[in-house]
Each structure stands twice: as C-alpha cells, then as structure tokens.
Specification:
Strand content: under 5%
Number of strands: 0
Amino acid sequence: MLVVIFIIKFILISLGKEISQGIMAWFNLATNPIIFEFISGYFIAHYFKIIVYLVNRVRVSVFILTIVILLTLVYFEMKTFYFCSDFHIGGMFLPALFIFFFCIKIFDLDKKTVPRFLVFTSRISYSIYLLHMAIIFAIIDVSTWVFGSDVFGVFSARFNLFFISLFFSWVVSYYFCFYVEERLSRKIKKYIFRV
C-alpha cells in the first residue's frame, strides 16, 4: 500500500498536477521516512522466515559486492529509489537494508561470533534511538557556530558528520542507558509494578 502511495505521489508531481495542500500533507505524512522505516521493519519481522530462507541462498561475496556498490552510490549522492525525494530513504534505505540482511547471513546463519562492540550497541540501542536526533542537531548547531553556515556544503563534511554523530550518540547513549534508562526501569518495577 505504501509503495502505491509513493508511486501515486511521484506520478502526480512528475505530471505537474496541482495538488491541494491537504492532500499533499497526507501524502507527505504517508511517505514520511520514519513511517516507511517502521513499516519496513514490521514486514521484515513478519516475513522473517522467508527472508532467512532467501538470505541463506545468497553468497557472502554477492552481499559484499552489492553493499560496496550501494555505498558508492551514496558517496556520490545518487539515489537508489528515484521516486523518493528524501535522500534518507532515496539513498540510504537500500544500503542499510542490505547491511541488515548481511548481518543476518553472517551472524545468524553462518554462526559467526557477534563482536562485543555490536552486543554493547544492541544493549544501548533504545537510548541511541531516543537521543540520536537531538545529538545530531546539537552537533550541526555547534559546527555551524564554530565553522560557519556553509560547513556542510560538501558531501565529505556531511560524511564526517555521520561518524562524529555516531560516536557521540554511542557515548551519550551509554551514560543515558546505564544512569537513566536502566535505573528508571528498576524504580518503576520496584515502586509502581511492585516486581
């Protein structure tokens, strides 16, 4: 259904049709990257057995080659979904999806040991989810204040922003997870649910 909405929106905009603000607002909400990612995650969970079966039939070398090609497209700011105006989905969705499937292949199916770093990241993942946007916007504000408003005019600066944001998201989320999230969870269980 969501794909149909994307295609209808793309066709109407391509044809230059006049779309009322209310309908356009509905299209923008329905095709919001966050909603698209949520629904994609739901479908992956729902069809997980089928996905595992298909992923198991693909060679590791094919995954690696596909991921390298997709990340190269991202580096050159080329979209993989042309009908999506947002680069978050248009450029980054397929590489992230293939990396996710590749992780299923090597860790679940091929039984490779999961690195401790990824185990640690999974433990603080909810804190990362809660805080990452605030951290990214704080880094953008500090960067533009220190280096000027055109600091992100080139892609390499935005690429660096990704790694800087990733690092600070992990650090802040680590402290938030252990000193806020887990302590708060224990207190809620103890005083509210009497567990």
